[in-house]
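Researcher: Excuse me, tokens okay?
***
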Amino acid sequence: MDKISVITVTYNASATLENTILSIINQSYKNIEYIIIDGGSTDSTLEIIKKYQPKLAYCVSEKDSGIYDAMNKGIKASTGDWIIFLGADDIFYNENVLTKIFAENKNYNLDCTDFAYGNVIIKSNGKIFGGSRTYDQLINCNINHQGIFYKKSIFEIIGAFNLKYKILADYELNLRIYRNHLLKKKYIPEIVTIYNNKGISNQFLDENFYEDQLEYFINIEKVSLKDYRLQTYFFFYGFTQLLKNKRSAGFKNIIHALRFGKRKMFYVLFCIKYFLSLFRVVKKIRSASVFKSGLNEHYL
């Protein structure tokens, strides 16, 4: 029976962590190694971890360089055959999901598989996100890592998460895996987790990721600049540049994306919605500043 290493990265996650822990330790599949990597929480997260200490194979609380640094620490600490990363606000779909995938269903024979992935339910809207992915499909739609089982040996072959990418290192890792044709991938048509997508509105703001991927597509894979598959990369590369006041380069890349991509209206509406949301935030800040200023004057 394969050992499954479940890794949870935490930081001030007291509001949700216990549910995550319970969804793991209550699995009917018993060959589980549970690892928690905490980033030095200051709330009651550590008290919750201590409560379930006997159920943990390994835990540590120390400062890190971000979520992917913590995930890499979890990889190093793990001894399982497979690794899955479950966020501190995510839960397994039910208590039998690991049993169903790794023990009951012989059609899911994963002996010759390096990268197995299923579906997740998005908590905010209840929709199922997932499906089988070819490399071309992955280029424009990542696989949610809460639905992925990585063979431990895969990290010895291609390396761990690249800390250069603060937000999309999991996407870069998946692209690296798909580019290695010796690694065997398998889609499992099962719901693996319920994924809490709250607070990821800025998940695309990783300039280094888009810059490096465009360089790879164009210089290594010789993809045409006009290839519609690159629209997302040109658009978000330009968008992050705009937000960093690199206006000339930013507008150039966004215009390129709108010229040669298929989803022109989507990205136009995205820009409008994003900047309107920023405008509302700025208005709130200004209102709060005025209010605070009025209070100061009142109490002087």
About this structure: Strands lie at 4-10, 32-38, 58-61, 82-85, 91-92, 115-122, 128-129, 148-151, 185-195.
